[in-house]
């Protein structure tokens, strides 16, 4: 009787834990879903089947913090990372530090990102000071800001031409939809004397992203259920949109009513929820 009460208690505790994680802990999968590669949903609300693991070491790169198990992606992303790192290595740049891609089956992450859900996003650190390290020597690492903490400007001791070249090579790849970088870094890129400025359009200013840049690929042709993002507007993105980041914030209007609670995240696409149930049913 006592034993039964214990096991019921355990079952309830387990259910509560599962409930707290939305009963769908996408971080619990340790390997990709079988099947052909396919992206379902959007970058910040989706999942993927048939993901591939990026080898933890390769020409021109090393995966950092592999213990997070976020080095999975659509094969097109894996190809891209390897091509990108190879192109940099050919110029003597690297090894680059490749941080999070996606979880083995994509889906929401329990910490760290609101996107990276479909195996089409990858974070690459700006820092180029890391030697090749054994895999267990890469867990405690972190990126660091390229900005001077006092002035908010680029730190000339840290920012090197190789970093601008990394952005140029990545943003010139037709597989890339956009790359998120800090507005200060975008401003630096805009000031560059580039022969061809087309690639600047794919460099989009966003908060944070001063220690790493976030590369996002277009929907692959094999994934009709992949939901693309509206492409960046025409132009190099160096005009008013960028300058707005540097304007002093206007004072918020006095709130007549208390601010609404943060809306709950939208439900995952039905196809992802169905797959999750199938995978966890057995
Ligand atoms: Zn990212």
Describe this structure in words.
With 282 residues, the chain is an alpha+beta fold. It has a single domain (41-245), classed as 2-Layer Sandwich (Muramoyl-pentapeptide Carboxypeptidase, domain 2). It has helices spanning 2-20, 75-90, 161-171, 183-190, 240-243, 270-281, and strands at residues 38-42, 45-49, 52-53, 57-58, 61-63, 72-73, 96-98, 121-125, 176-181, 203-205, 212-217. The strands form four sheets. A four-stranded mixed β-sheet has the order 8-11-9-10. Strands 4-5-7 form a three-stranded mixed β-sheet. Strands 1-2 form a two-stranded antiparallel sheet. Zinc ion is lined by residues 113, 116, 121, 123, 214. Zinc ion (ZN) binds at residues 113, 116, 121, 123, 214.
Number of strands: 11
Overall form: globular
* Count of helical stretches: 6
- Contiguous low-pLDDT stretches (5 residues minimum) are 1-23
Helix content: 10-25%
Spatial strand arrangement across the major sheet:
8-11-9-10
Small-molecule binders here are: zinc ion
């Amino acid at each position: 009787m006592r034993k039964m009460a214990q096991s019921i208690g355990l079952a309830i505790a387990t259910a509560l834990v599962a409930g707290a994680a939305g009963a769908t802990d996408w971080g619990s999968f340790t390997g990709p879903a079988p099947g052909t590669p396919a992206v379902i949903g959007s970058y910040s609300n989706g999942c993927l089947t048939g993901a591939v693991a990026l080898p933890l070491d390769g020409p021109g790169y090393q995966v950092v913090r592999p213990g997070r198990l976020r080095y999975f992606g659509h094969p097109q992303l894996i190809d891209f990372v390897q091509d990108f790192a190879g192109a940099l290595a050919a110029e003597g740049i690297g090894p680059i530090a490749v941080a999070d891609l996606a979880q083995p089956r994509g889906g929401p992450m329990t910490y760290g990102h609101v996107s990276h859900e479909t195996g089409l996003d990858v974070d690459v650190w700006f820092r180029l000071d890391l030697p090749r390290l054994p895999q267990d020597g890469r867990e405690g690492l972190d990126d660091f800001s390229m900005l001077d903490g006092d002035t908010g400007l680029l730190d000339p001791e840290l920012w090197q031409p190789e970093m601008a070249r990394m952005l140029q090579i990545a943003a010139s790849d037709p597989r890339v939809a956009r790359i998120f970088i800090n507005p200060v870094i975008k401003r630096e890129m805009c000031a560059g004397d580039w022969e061809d400025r087309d690639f600047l359009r794919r460099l989009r200013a966003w908060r944070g992203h001063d220690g790493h840049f976030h590369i996002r690929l277009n929907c692959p042709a094999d994934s009709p259920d992949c939901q693309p993002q509206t492409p960046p507007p025409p132009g190099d993105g160096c005009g008013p949109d960028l300058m707005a980041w540097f304007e002093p914030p206007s004072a918020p209007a006095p709130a007549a009513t208390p601010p609404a609670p943060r809306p709950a995240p939208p439900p995952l696409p039905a196809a992802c929820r169905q797959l999750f149930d199938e995978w966890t049913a057995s």
